[in-house]
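## Example pair
The file below holds two records. Each record gives the amino-acid sequence first, followed by its structure token line.
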Amino acid sequence: MYLAEKLHLKKYGRPIYGDPLYALEFGPVPTITYDLVKEDFSFRTEDMADAFYSALSVSDTPNGHKAFTAKRPPDLDWFSVSDIECMEKAFNAFSDRSFAEIMDNTHREPEWRAAGENGKIDYEKILDDGTESAQKTIARLAEQGRYIAL
């Protein structure tokens, strides 16, 4: 998800998910999604847990990990054409890589390093490549953020 989010931010100037990103041990992680995958609903609403379990079956694997199986096809109407494009591009670029390769790749990202262990990854750090265009996008997102309450 992080790789698609980064690609979309850089190409289109807006996030796909808007899920806060943190620099965790194995790489950048969208934290709300991570909590859901861990089945940690302590900071979430009951509706969110219900939506999660209505969409996915969760089972334990022999090696102690969780396996998720979709109960229904995804509702792609929630996503724009550009969202889907970036998700597909990230998937195609990394789907044949091992966990270790993806981790090594994301640990080289400057925004992951700048955040520090368990630190928040700011969208500004993802976008800021020193160009005027990036500065305009950062300013626009900061302005829009003043009017969005989550």
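Second record, same layout:
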Amino acid sequence: MQEIIAKAVYFHLADTNVYCVTVHSCTVKEESGKEVQLLDENGCAVDKYLLNNLVYTSDLTGGQISQVFKFADQPSLFFHCQIRLSYKEGECKRSSDLCPNTARGKRSVLSSLNDDDNIREVDVFSQSMTVFEIDDPINSRSVRGLDERPLEWNWQNVCVPTITFGILIALLGIAILISAIVTALLCLRSRSNKLELSD
């Protein structure tokens, strides 16, 4: 069973004032594929202990104080959120405005908004986020290694330049030719020795 470990962090979203922004359908995924939903399709928090409903301080800026969390025994997390952009006509109307203060379950709030023609959605993916354990030593060497993926040896990933491949084939051909000549000479020498002994 995997557990989630948490610590405080702040998410901040900003853009120009042409649109009204709603962040929704946020999930967090670990490297092996396990996924947890943070915000539903309306932008409402699914689990307020992981991430509460976002607070929008302007039409295009929103955020929330949250917990840094990770899956046990997994160093990296990948966040995926969708951003709904709608043209601002007067007041900014968001599906998340109707979210309950505590996340109880999913509701279809988006259908209550009338002007769906002015809505565009954008997927936002994060780079990997690494959360260290309290007992993990953090030094410059371990931080530099975060960007490097461990190399897995696979013969399909081997790429040899054409010139090198040609040289290797030529050397192999020469080795086979020399082996054939040496074998032929040894056979001839053996026959000549047998002929001399029989005389």
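Notes on the second record: The two ends are 87 Å apart (CA to CA). The CA atoms of residues 47 and 180 lie 75 Å apart.
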